[in-house]
Amino acid sequence: MKQPIRIxxxxxxxxxxLQAIINACTxxxxxxxxxxxxxxxxxxxxxxxxxxxxxxTFVVDYGAIIDGVRTNPEKLPLPADFNFDELLTKQALLxxxxxxxxxxxxxxxxxxxxxxxxxxxxxYALDLLVLAxxxxxxxxxxxxRVNTDSxxxxxxxxxxSLLPAFGGTDGYGDTFRYGCKVGGCTVHFIDYGxxxxxxxxxxxxxxxxxxxxxxxxxxGLQLEWELYPECIQLFAAGRLKLVKKTYELxxxxxxxxxxxxxxxx
Length: 265
Ligand code: GRF
Hints:
By secondary structure, the protein is α/β, with parallel strands linked by helices.
């Protein structure tokens, strides 16, 4: 019999997905427990939800750290193992054509914040970290220190679109403005890019005449609250496996992609 998993969550806002996950842990749909919740800003309302359930919380104030890079970069609390060149090679958040000074400032601020995140979650010996409306990209510095085995990713995210369409911050808005006839949400593992990691589960809904961004968001969130706990339970049950695939594309070209396979045990 598998042990219940220890789950950490990172949020930025209201935490409705966090609430759905906590509910699913409480009523047995997830064989696990949320043991720590962190936010990237002191105003994240979801922190209060966690406290009401007696869950430990913390805040890493990304805004203050990012301001610090602009105003007082030499005072930035960078960890001793910050290695800019290594991160530059690995990261896929900024294009290689981006201005190097800006890229350095971006990575410095993220790593300074991520060192604090790691410090806060480390004592909780997490099996899984879920991003639940966490509006920050994680750099390879953080990802590598959580995913100590690259074949067993341990950071999940929920995204408000049917990936790979509409990565970024406004999936439901993009779905509406593009005139899509179907919208949806995706749960995936995090990799070094933005919303590019291996897909675990997806749910779709029809976009009907008369729908607005608000009604699309409402339909999408309802599905998010079902999908995220289901995907977390697949992880808890040990049913998710990362497999490296190589596809022949014709003309001698090949494509490689790591995909998630779900076993039926
Ligand atoms: C959700 O739509 C999620 O997909 C996106 O941000 C929203 C967060 O909602 N990443 P909540 O904070 O869980 O209520």
